[in-house]
Write a structure and sequence with these properties.
Keywords: Methyltransferase, Transferase. The chain has about 190 residues and is of the alpha/beta class. The chain is built from 5 helices and 7 strands. Strands 3-2-1-4-5-7-6 form a 7-stranded mixed sheet, with helices on both faces.
């Protein structure tokens, strides 16, 4: 059943019909490179993925994963904050993916921050082409996660509803702080 799959896999299934070959897509939080790999396959040989992460370890893991699949030529990995996207991209993009929290298997003290995430979301929403998307999975069950989750929700709820559609998916019967999925599409 689809609700029993990993959230990232569910997001990938949602995006398959949306991403067009030749698109430029941002992986705003590269992590271990699974989304970068998915996106590199989806954009095809004429597309481009631009991945950001503040941790060199994440960039290294993603590079290894992409090289082993022969797809590194489709991806530009940038060791910088996603909030600095405007230093690297000025043309329209087809979409962006965020996984908020900390690097799985990495230092749990290094987390995404509300301030930089909001800066990135604002800049990316301005870069989206018509029909473009933003997906966000908020893993917020750690110190600082609740603040970021609330900031993201406020930002998304204030987007102009004549320009953007926003949605939230969360689990109702899981204990603790289960992850939340946010979906955005530019009209």
């Amino acid at each position: 059943m689809f609700l029993n799959t990993k959230l990232t896999d569910m997001i990938h299934e949602i995006l398959i019909p949306i991403i067009k070959p030749g698109d430029t897509i941002v992986d705003a939080t590269v992590g271990n490179g699974f989304d970068s790999l998915f996106l590199a396959k989806a954009v095809g040989p004429l597309g481009k993925v631009i991945g950001f992460d503040i941790q060199e370890q994440a960039i290294d893991h993603a590079r290894q994963r992409l090289e082993s699949e022969g797809l590194i030529d489709r991806v530009n990995l940038i060791h910088d904050s996603h909030s600095n996207i405007d230093k690297y991209i000025s043309h329209p993009i087809g979409g962006a993916m965020f996984n908020l929290g900390y690097l799985p298997g990495g230092n749990e003290g290094i987390i995404t921050q509300a301030k930089s995430t909001l800066e990135a979301l604002e800049k990316i929403s301005c870069l989206l082409s018509r029909g473009g998307f933003i997906t966000i999975i908020s893993y917020w069950g750690h110190s600082g996660g609740s603040e970021e989750k609330e900031a993201v929700e406020q930002f998304l709820s204030e987007l102009d509803n004549k320009t953007f559609i926003t949605a939230k998916f969360n689990f109702l019967n899981r204990s603790g702080s289960p992850p939340i999925v946010y979906l955005v599409q530019k009209l």
